[in-house]
């Protein structure tokens, strides 16, 4: 899900000055949008503040580094892609040992639930801005090799300030220069043409699914993209619906009090909300959930297709709404709240039956 960014030839000092000019003209401009406007990576822009509000961190052991997050107490965690931002407030509870040779990470807890794909975890910065109107901002921010943000952690309690400073001192890099060299994104593997996909094998494998987690290995085995597979299974396991379906799911969940799961991520991190959604609202191009402890911001103009998806499991069928962008990448996925070993909520199935 990386956005291709070409680093400008400006020096860090020139880049910093250009960012300052942008902020003077638009004080509310977010760093991601400023980076896009300036033609650089977000991490390159952040690095121009090293030695001031930003500290470059050196992380040689990501598993040990992640374990320190529990000391921060109450935090707001943010994971996003180009068209959706997912924010959860809570505490890191269980940060599990890395699996599959250090490639997969997992955090679980009442509020913070993450799936981590460690292959692209490359850079980390600590940001401490004491000039934020209405309060200070302290965060740990992780980036991939292209300088695209993976995951951000904002300290939300006084008790977390000292552990934050301790974490920064433990991991402070010797290099605190303002320069940042972003790597070019790896080319996306081209999709196999539909006509070359063994559709019968795909549908047979789909019918034989025992767990939703078996779906990705099936796609790999059949060498199909995710949206491509949904398209090939249309009328059997999937149904294409209106691009307003995501808004309708949120509206109905809010009206009916249905407990849902909302998955948002990028190539290297998926963040999950489980529970009800209450306050939903439109603001400019974004449709939003604005609840205590959970905020979602969905850019509706980025939605190119929406699919209702049905997967067999040993616990019965699991139904979801999957939302895609122009590149066939997942923007957001919605499920009914469900625990392994338990059947899907009937309330969720009834809600999805109203989506067209």
TrEMBL record:
It comes from the Bacteria. InterPro entries: Heme_Transport_Util_sf (IPR053733), HemS/ChuX_dom (IPR007845). Residues 39-170, 225-353 form the Haemin-degrading HemS/ChuX domain. One of its GO terms (biological process) is iron ion transport. Pfam families: HemS. This is Hemin-degrading factor. It comes from Ruficoccus amylovorans.
């Amino acid at each position: 899900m990386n956005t291709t960014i070409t680093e400008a030839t400006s020096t860090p000092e020139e880049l910093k000055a250009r960012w300052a000019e942008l902020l003077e003209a638009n004080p509310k401009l977010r760093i991601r949008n400023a980076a896009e406007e300036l033609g650089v990576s977000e991490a390159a822009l952040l690095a121009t503040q090293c030695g001031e509000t930003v500290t470059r961190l050196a992380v040689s052991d990501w598993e040990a580094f992640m374990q320190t997050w529990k000391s921060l107490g109450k935090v707001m965690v943010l994971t996003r892609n180009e068209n959706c931002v997912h924010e959860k407030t809570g505490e890191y509870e269980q940060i599990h040992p890395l699996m599959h040779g250090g490639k997969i990470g997992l955090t679980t807890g009442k509020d913070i639930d993450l799936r981590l794909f460690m292959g692209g975890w490359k850079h980390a910065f600590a940001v401490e801005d004491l000039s934020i109107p209405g309060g200070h901002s302290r965060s740990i921010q992780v980036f991939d090799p292209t300088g695209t943000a993976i995951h951000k952690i904002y300290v939300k309690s006084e008790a977390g300030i000292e552990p934050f400073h301790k974490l920064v001192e433990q991991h402070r890099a010797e290099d605190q220069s303002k320069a940042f060299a972003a790597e070019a994104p790896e080319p996306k593997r081209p999709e196999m043409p539909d006509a070359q996909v063994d559709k019968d094998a795909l549908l047979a494998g789909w019918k034989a699914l025992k767990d939703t987690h078996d779906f990705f290995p099936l796609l790999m085995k059949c060498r199909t993209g995710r949206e491509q597979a949904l398209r090939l299974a249309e009328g059997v396991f999937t149904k294409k619906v209106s691009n307003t379906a995501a808004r309708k799911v949120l509206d109905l969940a809010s009206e009916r009090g249905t407990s849902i799961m909302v998955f948002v991520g990028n190539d290297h991190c998926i963040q999950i909300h489980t529970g009800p959604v209450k306050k939903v609202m439109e603001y400019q191009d974004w449709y939003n959930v604005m609840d205590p402890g959970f905020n979602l911001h969905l850019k509706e103009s980025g939605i190119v297709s929406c699919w209702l998806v049905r997967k067999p499991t040993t616990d019965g069928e699991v139904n979801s709404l999957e939302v895609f962008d122009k590149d066939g990448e997942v923007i957001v996925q919605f499920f009914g709240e469900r625990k392994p070993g338990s059947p899907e909520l009937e309330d969720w199935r009834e809600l999805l039956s109203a989506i067209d």
